[in-house]
Amino acid sequence: MTKALREGVENHLSQYQLNDDQMQHLMTMQEENFSSEERPHTGGWNIRMLQFTSLAAVLIIAVSLAWPAFYSLNNASEIPRSIAMEVAKNHIKLKPLEVTSPTLTTIRRYFTELDFSPVKSQLYERRGNSLLGARYCSISGVSAAQLRYKDKRGQFQTLYEVGYDPEIYGSLPDINKGETPLVIVARGVKTIIWIEQDLLMVSAEYNETEN
Amino acid sequence: MVFDRPALDRLYQYAISLCGAEADAYDLLQSALERYLQAQRKKNQQIENPQAYMRQIIRNSFIDLHRQQRVYNSDEFDEQIHTKVPDISSHSLENLVIEQDLLEKIWQHLNFNERELLYLWGLLGHTIDEIALELQCPRGTLLARIHRLRKKLQKTQTLGASA
Fold first, then answer.
1. What number is the average pLDDT over the span A7-17?
2. How far is B13 from chain A (nearest CA, A)?
3. Among A88, A106, A74, A66, which Cα is nearest to A160's?
């Protein structure tokens, strides 16, 4: 049927609508934000505010005195933490795979836009998880490969691989030099960070404590 | 609640206009909403024109994503500003009629700039000046874009009719 272009565009785009789960998730995000904003202040608010301001003033003075030492220490430890946070966030979202295959060779062929080739990690392979597939992602703004595995309990695990650049990621443990990987728990996700074959690797899985 | 259901659907349709795929569009929308809510908390006040603000975040995220995936083509974003802009206006789109089936087919073959233009003009009813203001894009560039888009649509219609 012939229509005015404007009407055609309206018809075409109107067929795309969020499904109930997606809509519910976005509504919940807003509700949570709204309720945290609207939390009412209690009667002792002014006194607590005064105490807080005094404490903040003392802290500012203390930090500015100890700043040079604090800065270098803090900066070094912030990078792995931010990597862990980013990876944990991606792991929780569990976005759809762009390529599904149990073999790394097929997956490697898919990643044509990366400036490195995803490799089999000696450290990660010991876990004996089954490879499901992969998708593009990024770590600190650099294009990365996200490989998804299923462990023996049927839980999803992800392994992120990205070219290692010390200027971006700082100094991290290299298992080829016998160094021990970093373990950081972020947002309830256990992340392990290490360098292997000149790639930065980060594994992520839900942090379940054994009984 | 800032965005009700129809508003979220509209934003989702905007994200689809940019990236073309539903799963990617939802990812874009979700992360944009996260950023929006963060910005709102920081500013501690209502953001003026939340829909336009969200579209801006979605657009920036989309461009960043493409840059990261190295499929970013600056020509696609910058267009040929130096090409001679013919004497046209958005009226040249107003007068156009098209088969719905044909539009469905051609949609995926349009670049994201063209789909975005159609979204803002066709679905939101923006004028060219309003689109130029929102996209921070010279009016001449938009007119050249409309000219190419119109030619593309007409060519497809001709091919469709002769097939």
1. 92
2. 6
3. A88
Indicate the domain borders of chain A: 5-36, 77-206
Asked if B69 is an interface residue toward chain A (Cβ–Cβ < 8 A), one would say yes
A66: helix, coil or strand?
coil
Q: Contact at 8 Å (CB) between A151 and A172?
A: no
Residues of B in contact with A9 (CB under 8 A): 103, 118-119, 121-123
Question: Mind telling me how many Å the CA of A194 is from chain B's nearest CA?
Answer: 23
Number of domains in chain B: 2
Q: How many Å apart are CA B33 and CA B15, to the nearest integer? A: 12
- Is residue B115 located within the same domain as residue B154? yes
At A184, list the tokens. 């950081």
The 10s digit of each residue's pLDDT in B19-75 is: 988 888 999 999 999 999 888 887 776 788 899 999 999 999 998 877 766 554 544
Q: Are residues B60 and B85 in the same domain?
A: no
The nearest CA of chain B is from the CA of A8 a distance in Å of: 6
Q: Which position has the token pair 């044509």? A: A112
How much is the ipTM here? 0.83
Examine the domain organization and report whether B87 and B65 are in the same domain: no
Q: What is the pLDDT of residues A112-164, one digit of tens each?
A: 888 888 999 988 988 888 999 999 888 888 889 999 999 888 888 999 999 99
Percent of chain B at pLDDT > 90 equals 35
